[in-house]
Amino acid sequence: xxxxxxxxxxxxxxxxxxxxxxxxxxxxxxxxxxxxxxxxxxxxxxxxxxxxxxxxxxxxxxxxxxxxxxxxxxxxxxxxxxxxxxxxxxxxxxxxxxxxxxxxxxxxxxxxxxxxxxxxxxxxxxxxxxxxxxxxxxxxxxxxxxxxxxxxxxxxxxxxxxxxxxxxxxxxxxxxxxxxxxxxxxxxxxx
Length: 191
Known about the structure:
By secondary structure, the chain is of the alpha/beta class.
């Protein structure tokens, strides 16, 4: 059972990212403030959910959240400032887009660049512990997967509709055969 809150404040926002370990595409992050009575049967760490359950949860989150936002950092930004800093940048952008100033940020993981004026706490495995982080995990993953499916239409040889830009053997074989695209992360070891 996921915890509703860490601080007890109703404007606590969960933050998580998706796509950090990919070879291609942007890194996405989401910020979500849920009402205290939020309930979604399948909500969990997005990696532990089926695609169908993620889509169901995404609909519930988007309809019932107090506020939610999804943002990204581009492959160029990742190359320029590194993947960790790009992940924090995407998280900050998501907080900027919320439209409400959170009272506290619950961040999945063990590192974060502080967001000016808002206290935060770090939670390793937070997406399997707190509802708001799990909700952020679901939104970041589903929105990113959607983007990678769109990019796959332009570049079908890389299999992004299935691997979402992660380093699968098929993806690496396609890089070897066709070379990288402008969506590949040039600072990463692609082969």
